[in-house]
Amino acid sequence: MLDYNIDLSGKTILVTGAAGFIGSSLCARLLSSVNGVKVVGIDNINDYYDVRIKEERLKKLEACTGFTFIRGDISDKCAVDALFAEYRPQVVVNLAAQAGVRYSISNPGAYVSSNLIGFYNILEACRHSYDNGDGVEHLVYASSSSVYGSNKKVPYSTDDKVDNPVSLYAATKKSNELMAHAYSKLYDIPSTGLRFFTVYGPAGRPDMAYFGFTDKLVSGKTIQIFNYGHCKRDFTYIDDIVEGICRVMRHAPERKTGDDGLPVPPYSLYNIGNSHPENLLDFVTILQEELVRAGVLPEDYDFDAHRQLVPMQAGDVPVTYADTAPLERDFGFKPSTSLRDGIRHFAEWYAGYYGTCRK
Q: What's the distance, CA 300 to chain centroid?
């Protein structure tokens, strides 16, 4: 295992996308478990999905000591520069991004603005923090399992070649990895990219399958299961994602000199996934059972009448499967929450948030 070289206690940590699913969960974890930490969150609260969920997440965070929220967009360079100048974050976790594979097909501009320009602004701010004598100790940023595209080799390894994205979203995430590597090389900025695999859990993103399926079922609508149910996904519970991020934050890639005498970029890349791909039909069965158990749906609900098997949709891939051996080797951590347990937590949250047996 790697030795931690960053003590988060008393540090100022910037979390972009702080009102998002992963961002808000990370902020809550840091505020509750790290002594004297100051968390600065930024989010533009866009309406890609129900802003009420984002506002509910923020409401809980703003009740915590040590949390500062800034409503802003990382694609606004002046706003990012001003934030860095005022708060001088020592650790930066970039989770702000326009998410969604399918949405990128019809709205490419949103991805260029947030995922490319926004990330460039974060990199530039980290770079110039060194000019002010308060260099960022570690930049951690979100990538995605989408970068693997239609890679047929499984499990997916960070050593795999990923040059054939099947969506613009995936292309922007791969671009983030390349940009971070260049900045690590040129400006000696320690950075670590994390490829997340199908994150789910309570208060998650309504555009994700488990949440969207639930909304449709309670409304009596039909859910569509792509690739006739033969897709597999490496579902990863939110607490496992946050645990992985927290461990990675504490070890910045070290500055080294290579055998050729030249600097080696202080750069790392890891998968964070459950390493247990689930067939979509099995996933839907578990979801149905847990929704009934939580009282979200009645016991006599006719599921067969409300689901339809359909062909693969553009931008989708048949399987995602994470090789997490490097994460386990370096940080002693392997995500382990079962899909049944994770979906149960979601169903119970959904019942509490929206009520039971909605029609």
A: 36
Element housing 242 (H / E): helix 238-249
What are the domain boundaries of the chain?
A: 12-200+237-275+322-336
Q: Which residues contact 174 (CB under 8 A, 6 or more apart)?
A: 143, 147, 162, 163, 165
Residue segments in the chain with a per-residue pLDDT below the cut of 70: 314-316, 357-359
Q: Identify any residues that bridge with 1 across adjacent strands, giving them in sequence order.
A: none
For 12-200+237-275+322-336, CATH gives 3.40.50.720
The packing angle between helices 21-33 and 51-62, to 10°, is: 10
Helix-strand-coil split of the chain, %, nearest 5: 40, 15, 40
Enzyme catalytic residues: 169
Predicted local confidence at residue 359, as pLDDT: 45
Burial of 212 (C-beta count, 10 Å sphere; 0-12/13-18/19+): middle
d(CA 233, CA 240): 16
* Nearest-angstrom CA–CA distance, 316 and 350: 26
Whose tokens are 């897709």? That residue is 231
| Own/partner pairs, 207-211, CB within 8 angstroms, 24+ separation | 207/48, 207/49, 207/99, 207/100, 207/103, 209/233, 209/280, 209/283, 210/283, 210/287, 210/343, 210/346, 211/346
pTM value > 0.85: yes
CA–CA gap between residue 86 and residue 100 (Å, rounded): 32
